[in-house]
UniProtKB/TrEMBL annotation:
Similarity comment text for this entry: Belongs to the acyl-CoA dehydrogenase family.
Keywords for this protein: FAD, Flavoprotein, Oxidoreductase
The organism of origin for this protein: Streptomyces graminofaciens
One of the Pfam families matching this protein, by short name: Acyl-CoA_dh_1
rRNA-binding as UniProt keyword: no
Name listed for the protein in its UniProt record: Acyl-CoA dehydrogenase
């Protein structure tokens, strides 16, 4: 593995960072999350039309740029630094790869160019309280996370020839209140032939409580991290289109495949956020004085920040390797989940130390340090926690297999 970034990759990172410095400061972030959409549509338009970020990892045949998950992870790192409230994660990282993997040619040519151009945003709606299990990061996604038969979740029934109707409710849908396209996971077949399928629901970009699809109600929920807005969807006989073919096993495998890439991007986002917190904290301890000298000159403070620095550097290495491994199809090692665990821990440590070392202003609502701590906490709730990410990886690797007899591990 060559750890050096290419000139093109460095240019992508530099361009995104310069744009975000100009257009996505703390005040702009607060203003964006307070809007009905929950994100800055102007910034999203610039990122899409000028930089092509929604289609960065999509093939050129579908209007994309033709880059890989590595470039998307580099973009994620810069977005994480600014906590940029844009729907790149839900649209380009979660939904677009599923359409590419499962959709038929007509669906790909209809949806992917519109996603790549930024014309539409998309959201993945799956029952349950955590995306980690659905994406195969914290457990086997062949469990009962989507309900089954009449056991809750979202149910799908066939109407006529190829028509489908959805009924149920989904909470904690990232960007679900404003997305123009919804990708909804639902159970079909009842008890006799129960299987999980994905359906395309077309909804408008109206206000948080309105939608164009008949029977669909979307309500924006209060989120711990306001920069990742979430919604509750209520579906009452909503017209939907089956994504691809009726093959339940293929859907679960595709979700697990998307989980590898999503974990790499999420890890890079967390690394960018942690690096930004460390940068701000170092600048602050150099200025704040106690006993006639900057507090950054005290050995205890240096040691604490050194621990944060080591954690951020290690997490960046893990995130870059995860992105590299995803591009090369290295799935058996589950490096994405491990990288995400390390990055989330690095971000939580960096944010906690940042709040502590900022003293009385660190925990106030007006200071940006609390936003980074909330990002770490909500990402752990949605995709983690770290010990579950590592535990699932260890189980898949057979670490706790037959060699473990309860008393000792035979090497």
């Amino acid at each position: 593995m060559d750890a050096r970034l290419s000139a093109e990759q460095e240019e992508i990172r530099r361009t995104v960072r310069e744009l975000l410095i100009k257009r996505c400061g703390p005040e702009e972030v607060r203003a964006a999350v307070a809007t009905a959409d929950g994100y800055d549509r102007g910034l999203w338009t610039v990122l899409a039309e000028q930089l092509g970020l929604p289609g960065l990892a999509l093939p050129e045949a579908y209007g994309g740029v033709g880059c890989s998950m590595t470039e998307l992870a580099l973009v994620g790192e810069e977005l994480g630094r600014a906590l940029a409230p844009v729907p790149l994660l839900s649209t380009a990282v979660l939904v677009a790869p599923l359409v590419l993997a499962l959709g038929d040619e007509r669906q790909r040519r209809e949806l992917l160019p519109r996603i790549a151009s930024g014309e539409v945003t998309a959201a993945l709606a799956v029952p349950g309280t955590g995306l980690g299990a659905v994406l195969g990061l914290t457990g086997d996604n062949r469990g009962a996370w989507a309900g089954g038969g009449r056991a809750g979740g979202v149910q799908a029934r066939r109407v006529g020839g190829d028509g489908w109707r959805l009924y149920g409710e989904v909470g904690q849908v990232l960007g679900g209140h404003s997305a123009e396209v919804l990708l909804v996971a639902a159970h079909a077949g009842g008890y006799a032939r129960s299987r999980t399928l994905l359906f395309v629901v077309r909804a408008s970009s109206a206000s948080a409580s309105m939608a164009s699809a008949a029977g669909l109600v979307r309500v924006r929920q209060t989120a711990l991290d306001e920069t990742r807005p979430m919604a509750r969807l209520e579906l009452r006989d909503v017209e939907a289109e089956l994504l691809g073919e009726d093959r339940g096993g293929g859907v679960l495998s595709a979700l697990a495949g998307v989980g590898d890439g999503a974990a790499a991007v999420l890890a890079a986002e967390a690394v960018g956020a942690a690096d930004r917190v460390l940068e701000r904290t170092v600048a602050y301890v150099r200025q704040r004085e106690q006993f006639g000298r900057p507090i950054g000159s005290f050995q205890a403070v240096k040691h604490r920040l050194a621990d944060v620095y080591v954690g951020v550097r290690a997490a960046r290495s893990a995130a870059y390797y995860a992105a590299w491994a995803t591009v090369r199809g290295v799935r058996g090692e589950r490096v994405g989940a491990l990288a995400l665990a390390q990055a989330l821990e690095a971000l939580r440590l960096a944010a906690a130390e940042g709040i502590q070392l900022h003293g009385g202003i660190g925990f106030t609502w007006e200071h940006e340090a609390q936003l980074y701590f909330k990002r770490a906490a909500q990402d752990e709730l949605l995709f983690g926690p770290a010990h579950r990410l590592r535990g699932c990886t260890a189980e898949a690797a057979g670490v706790f297999g037959a060699e473990f007899d309860g008393e000792e591990v035979r090497h």
